[in-house]
Amino acid sequence: MAEDIQHGCSWLASSDIDHFLNRAAQRGIPLTVTLELTHRCNFRCVHCYLGDQEAIHKHRSKELDTEKILSLLDELVDAGTLFLTLTGGDPMLRPDFVRIYEYAVHRGLLVSVYCNGSLITDEIVNSFIKYPPRIIEVTLYGATEITFESITQQKGSFAACMNGVARLLQSKNRLRLKTMVMSLNYQEMPAIRNLVQKMGVGFRHDCAILPALPNDDNGGALNSKKGVKKLGLQETLRFRISPQQAVAIDHGDKILKEKIRQLSLHKPLLKKTTRLYKCAAGRSSFHITPYGRMQPCIITLYPFVDLLKKDNKLLSSWESLSEQIDQQRVTSNFICTSCVERKKCTGCPSSFLLESGCLEEVPSFYCDYTKCR
C-alpha cells in the first residue's frame, strides 16, 4: 500500500508513508478506501475475478444510487479518510461518474481512478483537467490487437483503450498502466514494456491470477463467448503462468528486481505474530462494493457490514469491522507465520481461501513463486 500511495505523492519517502499508515492503524483511522461504483464492464475478460458480465449487468438496479454514494463520501471525510480509489468494473459506465468524482475532490479526498481506458469522454477529460486525479490507472492487456482482444473478448477494445490512453496523455494527466500477466500475453511482455516506455508513464504488473469471487451477482460463472458453456470460478487459474515465468517477468523490472534482491540479502527480523491479517485491510483501509457492502478489501469478503441497513453508520461500521479483523488469529500450524521469506510473498489468507477453500492452506504457487524470487 505504501508504494501505491507514493504515486502522486512523490515528495513523501516510503518510510514516511509506512509511519503514516501505522499511525492511522493505531488510531483506527480508515485512511484509504476503495469504492467500486459498479461491477459492470464493457469488456468480458477471460480471467476477471468479478465473473460473468452477462449476469452482473442484470444487477444494475441494485447498485448504490448517486445520493447514497455522495452521502457515503461525506461520512468517509468525517471518519478521516484521505485516499479514495474509484474503480469497477469500469466506473465510467455510470452516467454520474463525473458528478461523483468531482464531489469527492471537492470534499478534499485524494482520488485515484482505475478503469479500462475505453470509455474516456470529453466530459471526463475536461473534469480531469480541471480537477487532476492523484493517479489514473488503465489496464493494458497486450501490445497488439490480437493479444489484447483474446483476453477482453471484445472486438474494438484495443483501439478504444489506446484512444483513451492517448487522450489522457494529451491532457497531461498523471497516468499509470498495468498488466495482468497470464499465458495469453506472457510472450508479449517485452513489447508491452517498450510501448509503455515510449509513452513515458508509470507501469506495474501482477502475475497472480486469482479465482473469481463468489459474489452474488455473477451466477458462479466466468465470462464466456455466446453459445459457449459457462465455466466455474476456479477456471481463471488455467491462465496463470508458472512461478518460474512469473519471476522472469519480475526480473524484467529493474526496480522490482533490486527490491527483491535486497529482501533476499537482508531478510528482516520479523516478529512472530498470531494475527491472521498483517496488511492494512481492516486496520487503516476498507472496501465498499457497488451494493453497499463494507468489507476489509476487494477479495476479503468477511467480515462485512451492510451499509444500506438503516442503523449502520459508516464510522461505527468501520469500528466494528476493524475490531473483528483485529481479533482473527492463526492456528499453530499456519506455515506463513514463521516463514522468513514472507516479505517477498504476494499471497495472503484471502487469496489462499479463494483457491484452496481454507485461509491457512497455502496453494503451492505462492510458495514456489516466493522461493524462486
From TrEMBL:
Indicate the segments forming the Radical SAM core domain, all copies.
Answer: 27-253
- Tell me one GO molecular function of this protein: 4 iron, 4 sulfur cluster binding
Write down a Pfam family by its short name. Radical_SAM
What keywords would UniProt list here? 4Fe-4S, Iron, Iron-sulfur, Metal-binding, S-adenosyl-L-methionine
SUPFAM superfamilies (alphabetical): Radical SAM enzymes
Gene3D superfamilies assigned: Aldolase class I
Asked whether the keyword Calcium is assigned, the reply is no
- Keyword match S-adenosyl-L-methionine: yes
Question: This chain belongs to which protein, by name?
Answer: Radical SAM protein
